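Hi V.,

You were right to ask for the full record rather than a summary. Here it is.
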Amino acid sequence: MKPLSGVRSRAPLAGLLLLAGGLGLQWALARSPALVERVFARGLYPLLGGRLGCLTRLLPFSLGEGIVFLLLGGLAVVLWRLVRGSERRRWLRRFARGALMATAILYLAFLLLWGLNYQRQPFAVSAGLDVRPSSRDELLALGAALITEANEAREGLPEDGTGVMRLVDGGLHALARSDAGFREAEALHPVLTGCPARPKPLLTSAVFSWLGVTGIYFPYTGEPNVNMTLPDPELPFAAAHEIAHQRGFAREDEANYLGYLACRLHPDPDFRYSGRLAASVYAVNALTALDRKAGERLEAGRSPATRRDLAALLAWAERYRGPAERVSQRVNDAYLRSQGEAQGVESYGRVVDLLLAERRASER
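Predicted structure:
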């Protein structure tokens, strides 16, 4: 019994050392983005986390969601033993040791399978885009152009009974089509090359709606997952955003930009519209924060059809707004900050800087 007892006594120390090692690795590599880009993002990640997506894409359901169900079931059993068991103190010690070790292992796996992509060099550097402070006039021109493009892309698309844009083949088939835009984007930016993705529909979409989450990437299985309660105008862009995460771009602002880019280059008109609509919203919101009246004037230029679509998106957000969503936003904010996104959830707005940089490049 002594050897087993010794192993148990060393387990908490081993868990702490593993956790400290993971945190130290993340801290050190955050100071060497070029090294992370070369060795991890373009070397190890495609062979590790990227390969997972190649395998799990063959499944019609989300393996990651199933694993979460199993873990929650196991946790419920453990908690029941803690509450009802006669040896609660012994079970509590076991649970604490196991939880510490599991946390350390999962954190290290998260970093090696995907999380170190937060420390890679910015996409703008890889793509040669000139991201810099922009003038109000540049932002105004970008917003006007995107609204015009969204209005034009909306013409001729099918609608439901309320006049909101409808995916002609439904949400599930749209997910199956979502990777086509990235195949086009790879020709422009080879750094986007990766295994063909198949975003998975979340069975617990209603739960994610209450949390205010449109999709989630599960790094342990390499699966992009999409909230299927989203209105049709938003769903293609949400799917493309999660595929961007699977391609190794962890930062939210970059995933938003790459989601827009993949939609813009997509062969299907509903995807092209969804990406332009989302980009126009980001641009107008940024302008409104700077000059409210100018933002309102741009909004007035939207077509009646795009206004109906935006009203549907607003109604979806209002339907699920509540305390769970506010808590989720705080947790998400803390998570993003822990991964080096100093602005937290505000980093979602930086997609506009990339849109402006792309516009300057196209003008040149």
